[in-house]
Amino acid sequence: MAALNLCRMALRSSKLLYRPYNLLSVQLQMQMQPSSPPLTRKMSTDAQSIASQLNSSGLLRTQGLIAGKWSDAYDGKTIKVYNPATGESVVDVACMGGRETNDAISAAYDAYGSWSKTTAAERSKLLRKWYDLLMVHKEELAQLITLEQGKPLKESVGEIVYGAGFIEFAAEEAKRIYGDIVPAPFSDRRLFVLKQPVGVVGAITPWNFPLAMITRKVGPALACGCTVVIKPSELTPLTALAAVELSIQAGIPPGVVNVVMGNAPDIGDALLASPQVRKITFTGSTAVGKKLMAGSAETVKKVSLELGGNAPCIVFDDADLDVAVKGTLAAKFRNSGQTCVCANRIIVQEGIYEKFANALRDAVQNMKVGDGFSEGVSQGPLINEAAVKKVESLIHDATSKGAKVILGGKRHSLGLTFYEPTVISDVNSDMHISREEAFGPVAPLLRFKTEEEAIRIANDTNAGLGSYVFTNSIQRSWRVAEALEYGLVGVNEGVISTEVAPFGGFKQSGLGREGSKYGMDEYLEIKYVCFGNMNKE
Amino acid sequence: MAALNLCRMALRSSKLLSRPYHRLSVQLQMQMQPSSPPLTRKMSMDAQSVASQLNSSGLLRTQGLIGGKWSDAYDGKTIKVYNPATGESIVDVACMGGRETNDAISAAYDAYGSWSKTTAAERSKFLRKWYDLLMVHKEELAQLITLEQGKPLKESVGEINYGAGFIEFAAEEAKRIYGDIIPAPLSDRRLFVLKQPVGVVGAITPWNFPLAMITRKVGPALACGCTVVIKPSELTPLTALAAAELSIQAGIPPGVVNVVMGNAPDIGDALLASPQVRKITFTGSTAVGKKLMAGSAETVKKVSLELGGNAPCIVFDDADLDVAVKGTLAAKFRNSGQTCVCANRIIVQEGIYEKFANALRDTVQNMKVGDGFSEGVAQGPLINEAAVKKVESLIHDATSKGAKVILGGKRHSLGFTFYEPTVISDVNSDMRISREEAFGPVAPLLRFKTEEDAIRIANDTNAGLGSYIFTNSIQRSWRVAEALEYGLVGVNEGVISTEVAPFGGFKQSGLGREGSKYGMDEYLEIKYVCLGNMHKA
Where is the active site (chain B) (predicted)? Predict the structure, then answer.
């Protein structure tokens, strides 16, 4: 049967090559090959010692995980993982494709039969153990994140605590997958609703939060009784592999969690083609998300998508200026501006525009840029050269249309992919920087006069993920929060995501919700059971 | 202020003595003095070594806990705690009364201010730690239960797992005390509902489950942000004190958990009189529960009560006989029949009556009676001489009205409070054994002809706690389950209580629910907040 499924999948896979989905392959192909930084220099001593320490701790994994076994790519190919702060290669990892993915799917499918039948209490205990191990190894995992992704170590530790929180929360939610008893419309019937796991889940995750984007999906999936095939970003696979190593140590059975990385288009195609994969969950670009959604149609998979944002950060003249500056700083510059909820437009009321612009510039000026392992660093490198070029392009477009750089606006003297924290004033909605996700450390300041105008400017986008409001008015906070067409609204706060609250977007920012009790529904089927003939004696 | 409160409470307390509540004192007084068994012999070697081991582990506490400090009674009085299997005194514990209770209430009230403001995540972590410690010390705590209460060691271990489960579950529920947003009836308003802790809780618990009856109350109370004053039964205070010791080790702050024991009427009066105690939660006899409810009226306290049961166990002729016998055995004889959900009447359909009676008798015959520390023991002693006399009285009444003892029916040759597991046939509803809670190892078998007949007999009581049905018919299982006037219904299962499901009774078996998500509501106030004038620009 497994062999037959493999043959069938192979056939379908080849058919896919002639379908419009070919665009998916091209798109994923573009993502696959990280360009090398323009300059390279030797890995810092810190980074070298960290890599060797992680290796000896058993957390530095470089192979994929299929049915509980760590595996090389079948053709032996590898890809390099770079430290964006130094440009040096950290290590080579397996470069897997369709064949490995299909085997991972089979493993997940085989494990699903038993995993889905484990009691909620058992799944809860195993996830709790995994959470405990993630926390025990917090420092090592954080170092791994900084090493492969570049964010400051302090932010990496924050990500471990945040990401592990999803596993803890999911461990608890496992015991709360309550069904319902429905009042019956006929006296001879009894109706109830069960919630059951969807099946095998394909989880495709991005580079910007190497741990959290995985745990936010896999925690709930496993809690519900699903099994998973994870494809981490090939830019940041090491944290994913380390986390999964800990899931094995936690006692989670072979095949429940599988990891393949490398050839993104082939992996994606295999996940889409397989009728055994019943759910696709993806965080990444909007363009790729759309292709995955379309590709899921063939087998009518459940899909949840966390795609690009274009977060407005509205500062009213009745806001506490210090709170607004501090909140904006957090909303904008976290992870060097490389998060999908980063403030992409800072829309300031006329009356305080100059005051706010000056205060923000002064605050940003104090940010220390450097290798994430260095003490006191607030901003690390961007992930790769393409990211830097994008930022440069957006700034160029803005200034060519009248915007002014009041701070930064150029590559940092540290070289490589370091970029100066930047503040640009006199930005308007016609500029690309207001339209496209910058994914970089650039704060564009727009102006507005009235509340109505602020809301109009804020909602003038296809994206609808994160948004921020700074005001001291009770009425305004509710009016604006309700009017914003976004899945997340922070009032007087710049970093609001937590495992107990739902994360997800409106419009073209995605489908579904991750985290919180709401995130469990993405991995569950609803089954209606009707008992008839109940009046029989 | 505290001094003034103390004076006022003292005044109110003296007033209470002149009120009808005086009967409360008499009732509690009757409960307080456990009679010594008729014979005593030296504590068994096992028991001696267990006591000394517990002492060295720091879990053998004999003082009350007030404001984080272990205290003797202010007048130095003590009471003896007996091992019901040997009749020997284990240790003397403080015999506290009104003054100590008032100080405990003050401590709980003072701690409430800060505990109620801790975040849900913090309370969750403390409770999680407490759960972990209870599990780490599982064997010692189980030995303590067997030592002071008499149940078989295996059942004691079961109680630790069950009781600790409530702390774990409450730790998780702490983060799920969700409020609601209500669609507003007017456009210039926004309505929402908050859930906030009730305040200081007085928890009065029985001897039959020394750990679980405490954790089932205290877990949710603390999770909600309440603080507690616990009065464990003076028959079994040691387990309560050990559990409280572990709560201290878990880092739960001083004053959040307080324990007073000894002079039950004075302690009860103080809890009732105090306006600072906003909630009374009690498991015990119906008579005492009614007095506590009446006594709470003066200060309009929230009250939850888990009182006496009179559980029917209905065996239909379409049941699987083996399943029915096994289930009935578990429902009847757990803890020597000394639980409020024990099957008090076994109502068997005519067609299988003789067959069932014989099968049950044969199974019960195999039960080994003895000291709970001995290997293979299925039934330990009854808690005290009064309990044995009650059982004897009920059996005498039944046989005098025509019932037949087909097994047991007399004190066990082991002496003390050991009683033979007993099966009585030809019982009917006119006999006291069908009316009163036996709280002993006696299985009375009644007959019925029709389903309607069975339901009528089953519901013919003021109690409404636990109930059991054995049938293989889908229709019958739903019809009868729905028709039974009981808060818990087990279908083809004799032991059904779990931390994830609600426990509580209909009719005069009590008020409120413990355990599950429903149990949290008992410790919460619902606050409606209306934001008006929301149109102001």
Answer: 306
